[in-house]
């Protein structure tokens, strides 16, 4: 009996490992991985060829150089972007910053709550901002980053007081509300 159980167990393990290998080979790019996890391909800029992804969803993307891409707001990508990928969201994100009101904010999380809503949310710590999901359907060209502007904007964002952050949060919500009405 023991040899038959061992053979069945071995075949089962071999089958599972082949299944996971096929899944990995089908998802040959980070863009395919994003799409298979309910996220738009355009969250990362064009030309990403080097990435790692482990079984728990931790990923790291390597870019040739830091760069900026223009959407409704401008996004900055460091040379290394990493986070934890699960269906419809990336959390523990590092390496992406979003510009708003001339300040740069590190993006902590990106999520799509309800795909049919057409909305994607970027959490920058002080506020969660929504964008049109269609803006991120295709990867954008990424231009070489202007580091002086980025560092200046980041240091300004890091030194804001709690009162200033609350006021900024209010302005961002008002801006989003006025866009929703129009």
Question: How are the SSEs ordered, and which strands pair?
Answer:
Elements: H1 2-26, H2 30-36, E1 50-53, E2 58-62, E3 67-70, E4 74-86, E5 89-100, E6 103-106, E7 109-111, E8 119-123, E9 128-132, E10 143-144, H3 147-158, H4 162-181
Antiparallel strand pairs: 1-2, 2-4, 3-4, 3-10, 4-5, 5-6, 5-7, 7-8, 8-9
If you had to describe this structure to a student in words, what would you say it looks like?
This protein has helices spanning 2-26, 30-36, 147-158, 162-181, and strands spanning 50-53, 58-62, 67-70, 74-86, 89-100, 103-106, 109-111, 119-123, 128-132, 143-144. It is an alpha+beta fold and 182 residues long. It has a single domain, classed as at5g01610, DUF538 DOMAIN (Roll). Strands 1, 2, 3, 4, 5, 6, 7, 8, 9 and 10 form a ten-stranded antiparallel beta sheet that branches. It is globular, with a radius of gyration of 20 Å. The chain starts with a helix and ends with a helix. The relative contact order is 0.13.
Helix count from the secondary structure assignment:
4
Overall domain count: 1
The ordered H/E elements are HHEEEEEEEEEEHH
The radius of gyration computed from the alpha-carbon positions, rounded to a whole number of angstroms, is 20 Å
Helix percent reads 25-40%
What is the top-level CATH class? Mainly Beta
Form type: globular
Question: Runs with pLDDT <50, length 5+?
Answer: 11-26, 152-162
Keywords: Signal
Pfam family, one: DUF538
Signal peptide: 1-17
Structure keywords:
single chain; 182 residues; alpha+beta; at5g01610, DUF538 DOMAIN; 10-stranded antiparallel sheet; 4 helices; 10 strands; 35% helix; globular; At5g01610-like; signal
């Amino acid at each position: 009996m023991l040899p038959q159980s061992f053979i069945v167990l071995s075949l089962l393990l071999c089958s599972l490992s082949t299944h996971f290998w096929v899944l990995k080979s089908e998802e040959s790019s980070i863009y395919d991985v994003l799409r298979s996890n309910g996220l738009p391909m355009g969250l990362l800029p064009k030309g990403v060829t080097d990435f790692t992804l482990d079984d728990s969803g931790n990923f790291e993307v390597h870019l040739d150089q830091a760069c900026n891409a223009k959407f409704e707001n401008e996004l900055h990508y460091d040379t290394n972007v990493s986070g934890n990928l699960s269906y419809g969201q990336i959390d523990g994100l590092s390496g992406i910053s979003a510009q708003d009101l001339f300040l740069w904010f590190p993006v902590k999380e990106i999520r799509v709550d309800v795909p049919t809503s057409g909305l994607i949310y970027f959490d920058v710590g002080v506020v969660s901002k929504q964008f049109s999901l269609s803006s991120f359907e295709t990867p954008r060209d990424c231009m070489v980053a202007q580091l002086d502007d980025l560092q200046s904007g980041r240091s300004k964002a890091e030194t804001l007081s709690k009162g200033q952050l609350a006021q900024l949060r209010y302005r961002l919500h008002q801006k989003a509300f006025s866009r929703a009405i129009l």
